[in-house]
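Hi W.,

Here's what went into the run:
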Amino acid sequence: MSAAGSVKIFVPCDAAALGVGADETALAITAEANRRGITVELIRNGSRGLLWLEPLVEVDVAGTRMAYGPVQSSEVAGLFDAGFTTGKPHALSHGATQELPYFKRQERLTFARVGLTDPRSLADYLAHDGYRGLQAALAMKPADIVACVTASGLRGRGGAAFPTGIKWKTVLGAESQQKYIVCNADEGDSGTFSDRMLMEGDPFVLVEGMSIAGLATGATQGYIYLRWEYPQAKVALESAIAAAVAADYLGANIRGSGKSFQLEVRMGAGAYICGEETSLLESLEGKRGQVRFKPPLPALQGLFGKPTVINNVISFASVPIILDRGAEFYQHFGMGRSRGTLPMQLAGNVKHGGLVEIAFGMTLRELLYDYGGGSYSGRPIRAVQVGGPLGAYLPESQFDTPLDYEAFAAIKAMLGHGGIVAFDDRVDMAAQARYAMEFCAIESCGKCTPCRIGSTRGVEVIDRLIAGENAPKQEAILRDLCETLTYGSLCALGGLTPFPVISALNHFPEDFVKPVRAARAAG
Amino acid sequence: MSDAAPRRVIPIKVEPLSTLSTAARSTVLDICARLESLPGALLPVLHAVQESLRYVPKDAVPLIAHELNLSIAEVHGVVTFYHYFLQERPGRHVMHICRAEACQALGSVALEAHAKARLGVDYHGTTRDGAITLEPVYCLGNCALGPSLMIDQRLHGRVTPERFDALLAHSREAT
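Here's what came out:
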């Protein structure tokens, strides 16, 4: 609650906002307020997810948050002149944040608090329904917690979409003195940033979700494996963990229940493969991030050989609301076997990039145009890559595919972690296919031959193909090589790299033809 | 862990001709002593070494191996596996440019070319004045506001060539 006469102003501390000057804007607001003798309570919230408006400054006017953005530090004095502290209009004002169509049409379950609260404040978290899921779980038997998660229909949000409850049940049933909960926060897919936004904007919900997983399976130690590229998330998580420990939400005796759960953040060091769960476990053990053979499943022999729940950030963060509101509430959202909501991330060449949490079932076209507003460059969108660097490139003719795990699988594509990267008509799809192979070569862990060597050969074959050296033969070799990668690789890196390559070749064959390329280059 | 295998002792001779300074050596030893009891301590140790010394010197590898009771090959294998660990002393600032698809869709290929031309180095190189080391990175999680780069862990979005030049000038002035 703001003190009498003081104005509550929100400036995000989300990395994307910082990257376009949010810190400078916050400093300018404080300085300008001091100069004018206005008392301001400045809160550094997470991002609302309307990233094209960052830095998005919000002013609390009689309980309604009024949005102004993008606000650069140079525009702060003008905002004060216009009277933005009382919600007066300005060229940058957008009215009430909650009434913005981009925001209003979303179904924010997992991201309910992100951007709304102060991510460093446990009190704020508690005031916004925080820790209600854990309170419910503390009164339940482990098997009932697992049954609740299973009944919700929650599937792993990291990309593989495996039912979360089934995984937990396996760990619960495993006999061991020590079990672990591991959070995969190695969000390496290009076009995805929902994990980062959540960890920076509402770190407590991840801590709560992992604690519930601990109660459900009998695990007492948790690790968050975080990529080094997310330094702000590290700060946010470590401060949330310290606050949770101080208030007995973590530790040897959670809220006096006698149950124990400890949590630690561990940093990755720049290896895409460590997003693969067994590589991640190897890395946590202090080794090279090389993929393990499965079986044994990590649920039975995971970290240090012990039964381990390993889930994505969004999967864990979806759990508290399921325990709080019940499985049926969550189940109610979505379509087919894809239940609940998925935080989609609109990225790349799109006008209104950001986070859109919606129930499964909306089409790609609605997302790209109704939310995304078309391309950033103003040119036609020619191709869209969904699901990260291992996701297929989709042409315009496939934009009506509904966002649903099964619907995407049916067109040989995948939703993955919900990242959507748009490209305009200047994209060279042969270059994108080549990059997919190059990326696989750079990031391969080296354990299996199709991925380690096939990726390098793939780059060479694509080079020969676009150079027009006996093109039909090169294309046949490329397709054959992709088949070897698909069926012969140990994990998804080698196994799915053919997705972007073959989809580019199938949907955009003209980009691989030398005379067409030459004509295009000539203008 | 209670049921862990008995501790193997791998005898390692720490390089007699080590070029590690006394100060750097004691930094590495302090870090190892502080973190060695962590399960899977090697990555936290390497992060701490890089944070203190700005890179993981070659001559620190046998020392770390000895302190953590690992083989030199194991430590070397880990240092070289992860892109983030630097084996050479970097310039005063480290710049990571995102090469991933979402940034490509917003012109990062042109930004890379501009950066390399302005700095006069390729990836993994350091400018002649010792100011900047250029490294590639595969996604900074800023995919709606690309092209992106990071200078010393500070993210910058919507980096046009003009903005790049301004950031570069600012970094060169800063110590």
